[in-house]
Amino acid sequence: MARFEVLSQIDPLLRITLEPGESVAAESNAMVAMDGSISLKGETRGGFFKSLARKFLNDENFFQQSFVADDEPGSVLLAPNLPGDVVLLDVGERQYMLSDGAFLAATDGVEFETKTQSLGRALLGNSGGLFLMATEGRGQIALSGFGSIQAVDVKPGRKLIVDNGHLVAWDRELDYELSINTARSGLLGKVLHSQLSGEGIVLKFKGEGKVWVCSRNKGGFLTWIFSQMPQEKAVSNG
Predict the structure, then answer these.
(1) What is the dihedral of CA 94, 98, 103, 109, to 10 degrees?
(2) Phi-psi category of 186—alpha, beta or left, where left has phi over 0 and alpha has psi -120 to 50?
(3) Phi/psi of residue 10, nearest 5 degrees
(4) Under a CB-based contact definition with an 8 Å cutoff, are residues 95 and 134 in contact?
(5) With contact defined as beta carbons under 8 Å apart, do 100 and 143 qualify?
(6) Which is nearest to 86 in space by CA: 24, 141, 135, 132?
(7) pTM greater than 0.90
(8) How many whole angstroms separate alpha carbon 170 and alpha carbon 214?
(9) Distance from C-alpha of 131 to C-alpha of 127, rounded to nearest angstrom
């Protein structure tokens, strides 16, 4: 099986070593460098309809990159789009749910299926809309997050509450519910208070397993970037 290795702790690269005949899939535009013995192809991983679901239902790329070692061994360097950690997870005995944009690479035996979630979760959250990506098969996956990534344990009888903007992945066996992080009652009151206070959407996990979170929130970071633009500053200052 292809070998994954995370290089460095700050803005890491993912090095993948392939033996002849081995291949891996990676998110589009992730390639930094590769040996000349490696072939790079665009493919609809998992078939046309699964790829179509990733694109239009999960906002993932329709085509993924496929790196193949044909006749000689070789290696590939990949990097995520946003600065932050890369973590490796074994797929097989444990399967995972992935948040949007977390996927970086997977060995050949790993596939992805589309799981539906309730309309309320889809409208209020940003963890995958009406559909979520779930792993299946056996192998290894590499996930990326904005900032550092930490695994947090969920223990029986105790809920874990995670801000939706910091979510990377979680064990597929965990139950979860989505809500607005405020004590106000009623949906309208919760939404208005959330907008005024800056409190956002949270996911409440229960059961036994792990949740992977990242230290930075992409949505919050983009809001801050836009607020620093001259036009936005002029409007905010009247």
Answers:
(1) 30
(2) left
(3) -110, 120
(4) yes
(5) no
(6) 141
(7) no
(8) 12
(9) 9
Burial 3-14 (b: 16+ CB within 10 A, else e): ebeeeeeeebbb
pLDDT, tens digit only, all 238 positions of the chain: 899 999 987 889 999 999 999 999 998 889 999 999 999 987 654 444 454 444 444 444 434 789 999 999 999 999 998 899 999 999 999 999 998 889 999 999 999 887 665 544 444 444 444 457 899 999 999 999 999 999 999 999 999 999 888 999 999 999 988 777 644 444 444 443 433 334 467 889 999 999 999 999 877 777 777 778 776 555 555 5
- The amino acid at 54: R
Structure tokens at 168: 């990377």
Contact status, residue 178 vs residue 197, Cβ threshold 8 Å:
no
To which residue do tokens 């061994």 refer?
73
CA distance 145 to 98: 11
Secondary structure in 3-state letters for the chain: CCEEEEECCCCCEEEEEECCCCEEEECCCCEEEECCCEEEEEECCCCHHHHHHHHHHHCCCCCEEEEEECCCCEEEEECCCCCECEEEEEECCCCEEECCCCEEEEECCEEEEEEECCHHHHHHCCCCCCEEEEEEECEEEEEECCECEEEEEECCCCCEEEEHHHEEEEECCCEEEEEECCCCCCHHHHHHHHHHHCCCEEEEEECCEEEEEECCCHHHHHHHHHHCCHHHHHHHCC
Six token digits for residue 82: 């946003």
237 token code pair: 């200052």
The owner of tokens 């589309």 is 114
